[in-house]
Design brief:
Elements (H helix, E strand, L loop, with lengths): L5 H21 L2 H21 L5 H13 L3 H9 L10 H19 L10 H10 L4 E9 L2 H13 L4 E6 L6 H15 L3 E7 L8 H9 L3 E5 L18 E5 L3 E5 L17 E2 L2 E5 L1 H14 L10 H5 L1 H4 L11 E8 L7 H11 L4 E5 L7 H12 L3 E6 L6 H8 L2 H6 L3 E5 L4 E2 L3 E4 L3 E5 L5 H6 L2 E7 L3 H15 L1 E3 L2 H5 L3 H13 L4
Parallel strand pairs: 2-3, 3-4, 7-13, 10-11, 11-12
Antiparallel strand pairs: 1-8, 1-9, 2-5, 5-6, 6-8, 9-16, 10-14, 12-17, 14-15, 15-16
């Protein structure tokens, strides 16, 4: 039920043992080096001629393998293989197809939920299969403590089931408080399903998880990587954050579960996050995403049947009667999809901008296409504003962010550092002040290509979009605009860190 990185340790030890073995055979370090270089060239050739990943990632891996002997090859074996080569069993595929067929049929019957005609939502529907749905009551939560308390309140009101997924769940005071509430709801007879990413939540203690199971909670790690085999999934994680209560209310956004997300941390004076509370038909879309993840690695047949047979409990259609009339479209995607749903949805939204683009992202590491799209928008007269942390939570991500600033400024894009004593973790975007997105998606290569992500697209006129626009304005008041003059005076040390971070970013 837990992952302790057994696979990574196994591959590393095996790699070192093979080095010693071949050194013993060749009896010469020079011959061993030539042999390793030959193996590296073989992997590099495969990467060039047969791998289907994007050119930026290919180039970065080639440089890593050829310029960093041994370590570059080891890193590629651990993290670099093509995610779309992964194979799933016929039972896994059948379970997913059963759930997908039901959800497609279910939403097709709810014509009263279809949102207003919108060119963009129609394009995203053809891309993803998920339509914009009307009849939602949405609430943008710009404070971690506020979002956390709303989640607790909704869970207390649960009568049938509570579904939770977190990329990072910590067994600190915050995690224990929520876990205690979940155990109380399970004791009341409420079905509780708790899922966490096995790498993101690596520090969850065994004993703590056993307490949840003993209390009647169904606990499941997402995509374990503790097999003593050469796995292809270590670097492809589920980054979603979802809470669904009785199929009527859902929470998504950037906030994981831990003390720091409520600003209970000494490292930052404040942790700025953004969550979205959804009540109405779009909450059922989030429910579908959770069940999609819950069943993804099941090896038993017909595991989707209980949710379909009791659809009135998991997909209650009366939810629309209590909701408002906001239009919301749920887009989700992951590394095993043939198309890059999240990436393409973001590019479509940005490409339709006519006056303004506002982006807040804690991790800004764009691929060439997304960088070119933003630069082209700015040069065509659209006001583009990007807000990133003024203080990073990790050196690699922080300097990865700043490594792109010069190219942004050259195109006329306004870049802002959020409060340098706080941390900006919210992930949201606003187009023309009429369309907004909130979700787990960072504006980076990892979210676009390697992670499972979920985002809500909200279409105006909408009070929630207005709230998000106002939140961006408030965040700007706590931010400092970056200038080319400031960039010109940065230290040689920072320049080196930025270059190195920019190099490694496409690998991770």
């Amino acid at each position: 039920m837990k992952n302790k990185f057994q696979q990574m340790v196994f591959i590393t030890v095996l790699f070192l043992l093979l080095l010693f073995f071949f050194y013993w055979i060749f009896g010469s370090f020079l011959l061993l080096s030539l042999f390793i270089e030959g193996v590296t060239v073989l992997f590099a050739s495969y990467l060039i001629f047969f791998d289907q990943r994007n050119a930026t990632s290919k180039f970065a891996w080639l440089l890593a393998m050829l310029m960093i002997p041994y370590f570059g090859l080891l890193l590629f074996l651990l993290l670099g293989r093509n995610q779309q080569k992964r194979r799933f069993s016929p039972i896994q595929k059948k379970n997913q197809q059963q759930l997908t067929r039901y959800l497609t049929h279910f939403f097709a019957q709810q014509e009263q939920w279809l949102g207003k005609e919108n060119v963009l939502s129609s394009e995203l529907y053809h891309l993803s299969g998920n339509a914009a749905l009307r009849g939602n009551a949405l609430e943008s939560l710009a404070d971690g403590e506020e979002a956390y308390q709303r989640i607790l309140s909704d869970i207390r009101d649960a009568t049938h089931h509570v579904h939770l997924f977190y990329f990072i769940y910590k067994a600190d005071d915050t995690g224990k408080e929520l876990a205690q509430l979940l155990m109380e709801k399970a004791a009341e007879g409420v079905e509780v399903r708790f899922m966490y990413d096995s790498v993101g939540s690596i520090k969850l203690p065994f004993d703590w998880l056993k307490q949840l199971v003993a209390a009647g909670i169904d606990v499941r790690p997402y995509d374990l990587v503790n097999s003593p085999l050469l796995s292809t999934r270590l670097n492809w994680r589920n980054h979603r954050k979802m809470v669904i209560v009785d199929g009527k209310v859902a929470h998504i956004g950037g906030m994981n579960l831990g003390n720091e997300y409520r600003s209970l941390t000494e490292k930052f004076t404040y942790w700025r996050d953004t969550n979205l509370r959804i009540e109405g038909p779009a909450a059922l879309e989030v429910q579908g995403v959770f069940l999609h993840d819950w069943l993804y690695f099941e090896q038993e047949p017909e595991v989707a049947s209980p949710f379909i047979d009791q659809a009135a409990l998991y997909f209650p259609t009366e939810a629309i009667e209590k909701a408002d009339d906001e239009n919301c479209q749920i887009i989700f995607g992951g590394p095993y999809d043939k198309e890059r749903m999240i990436h393409d949805a973001f590019m479509d939204v940005i490409g339709k901008a006519t006056t303004s683009i506002k982006i807040a992202s804690p991790y800004f590491v764009p691929d060439e296409e997304s960088m070119a799209t933003l630069r082209r928008a700015a040069r065509s007269g659209i006001k583009v504003e990007l807000m990133i942390p003024g203080k990073g939570d990790r050196a690699l991500s922080y300097f990865g962010n700043t490594s792109f600033i010069d190219r942004l400024l050259e195109a006329g894009i306004n870049v802002y550092f959020y409060d340098k004593e706080a941390f900006l973790h919210g992930k949201y975007m606003i187009i023309d002040d009429t369309i907004a997105t909130i979700g787990s998606t960072n504006f980076d290569v990892r979210s676009f290509y390697l992670n499972h992500e979920i985002s809500a697209f909200i279409y105006g006129p909408s009070k929630t979009v207005v709230e998000i626009v106002n939140q961006f304005k408030e965040d700007l008041l706590k931010s400092e605009q970056v200038t080319q003059k400031q960039r010109a005076t940065r230290s040689i040390s920072q320049r080196i860190k930025e270059r190195l971070s920019a190099f490694f970013a496409p690998l991770l």
